[in-house]
């Protein structure tokens, strides 16, 4: 397993092997806590180091989107300011939808309608999506709410927050998050939202995945490819205030799913 330069190699390798071999539950609590801390440090290093990872706290992503259920092309723009602000602008040829999360406040704006307060379920879905954007540094800040397990050659970091659960599946060869599984309860039934990450590349020194494959309830619903990413963004003070949708954006056409 990759080690962090400058750390105690023997003790760290022993702790990580405890995890990989499935003995983390049998180890003393102190060893489990150190294994989790070491895993997070490995992830921070893999994503470009602490200085670069901090750039991901404030970011804009623009994605080309193919919705597989109806074979529709669209665009997905995300404005992210961690730890508690998110704006997602979804555009299809026939509709616009904007979702805004600003701390405890959440709004949904459809087409040219006025912003409306999000329902409890919509707000939970937005919070879960924001959790998916947590960086290794964000997770380190929440280490007391994290647990660690293993399986299928991967580590799984589980975060429980405000009644929601996000599982970050980490490849221990690269220390990249390759999948996030979000779980929320809808009418008493647990629903899972799975996003697979691939095609990693650095943007301004920070590692970012450039392809997403989405599943809801086991059904493959969408494929996305990153068109543009900007890190370390200085957002205006009113960026995350709800407002009517403005101009309908141009949507890149995609010939087929393979093009993504």
Structural commentary:
It is a single chain. With about 260 residues, this protein is of the alpha+beta class. The protein is built from five helices and 13 strands. It has a 13-stranded antiparallel β-sheet, with helices on one face. A hairpin with a 5-residue loop joins strand 5 (about 105-110) and strand 6 (about 115). The longest helix is centred in the N-terminal third of the chain and has 18 residues, at about 30-45. The relative contact order is 0.17. Residues about 1-5 and about 250-260 have low confidence and may be disordered.
Record the SSE blueprint.
Layout: H1 9-20, H2 29-46, H3 50-53, E1 58-67, E2 72-81, E3 85-92, E4 95-102, E5 105-110, E6 116-117, H4 120-132, H5 136-141, E7 146-151, E8 154-161, E9 164-171, E10 176-186, E11 189-203, E12 206-216, E13 219-231
Antiparallel strand pairs: 1-2, 1-13, 2-3, 3-4, 4-5, 5-6, 7-8, 8-9, 9-10, 10-11, 11-12, 12-13
Helix pairs in contact: 1-2
Characteristic key phrases:
260 residues, 13 strands, globular, disordered N terminus, disordered C terminus
Outline of this structure?
The chain is of the alpha+beta class and 260 residues long. The protein contains five helices and 13 strands.
Helix content: 10-25%
Discrete helix count: 5
What distance separates the N and C termini? Answer: 32 Å
* pLDDT < 50 stretches: 1-7, 249-260
Largest sheet: number of strands, sense, barrel closure: 13 strands, antiparallel
**Largest beta sheet: what is the strand line-up?**
6-5-4-3-2-1-13-12-11-10-9-8-7
